[in-house]
Automatic annotation (TrEMBL):
PROSITE patterns: HTH_LYSR. Pfam families: HTH_1, LysR_substrate. InterPro entries: LysR_HTH_N, LysR_subst-bd, WH-like_DNA-bd_sf, WH_DNA-bd_sf. This is DNA-binding transcriptional LysR family regulator. Residues 1-59 form the HTH lysR-type domain. GO terms for molecular function: DNA-binding transcription factor activity; transcription cis-regulatory region binding. Belongs to the LysR transcriptional regulatory family. Keywords: DNA-binding, Transcription, Transcription regulation. It comes from Yoonia maritima.
Amino acid sequence: MDNWDDMRVFLAVARAESLSGAAPALKMDPATLGRRIARLERSLGATLFVKSPQGYALTDLGERMRDRAAEAEAHLVLARDEGQGASSGLTGQIRIGAPDGAANFLLPQVCAAIQAENPALEIQILALPRVVNLSRREADMAVTVSPPAAGRLTVQRITDYKLHLASRADDPALATREDIRGKPVVGYIPDMIFDKELDYLGDLGAQGVQLASNSVAVQLQMIRQSGIGIVHDFALPFAPELRRVLVDEISLTRSFYLVRHTSDRQSDRLNKVAKAIILGIHGEVARLEKIARLTDSPLI
């Protein structure tokens, strides 16, 4: 590659696997990107992508070049971070990927506090009902509910969190599991559960869901209308008309993890952001879960 700009274009298309997917980040139109990739391949005398209606797939050479280019990019990021190290506070842009439960009910408070202490820092929250793809640099780091099994990634456990069955406070009391029958169950769309840790039906003893969404926030709104469902304790303070039910019989524990590129562990800037995210989420889960516990008695 002749220059950094060629590498930037190549990496964006390789990660997006299409010209249209790479165009927004590069602020170029797909036709221009197509010409840039064609020019790059001519200069190398080799094919980097297999083009098809489904997109741009890397050839074997393209995959090797992507890995090398990604390493070079990581070193450039480290060099930039060292240059910014002398400034007061954190600067630049950070994108954090997360499942929408954490993205809706935890990260807004956590990120606002971090940004308030670092006015020159721009924080973006990428809320997705699926696993964030760090290898394609969809985000700088990601909050997950399971540690990844593969990839050049490092994992830090953030905290455990609790989930319980919840219903409207003005619904008739549920005294036993048998009372669940006949009530519409709210949960995930079964074929869109992207992590086994999000499959709660076995714990609930339900055969299926009558009201479903791939979004935790939408599920919460559904329960506010009618029905019952498994809810994060840290989300309950945002829906005061709901209460936890059958607390002693149905109680789930899951964990959050912070996942990062291994190469980014050398970046003091990203290490500081990661530490702040971990401490912030840990503290926010504890604070909100305490509120959820305190509201049990008055609602029951």
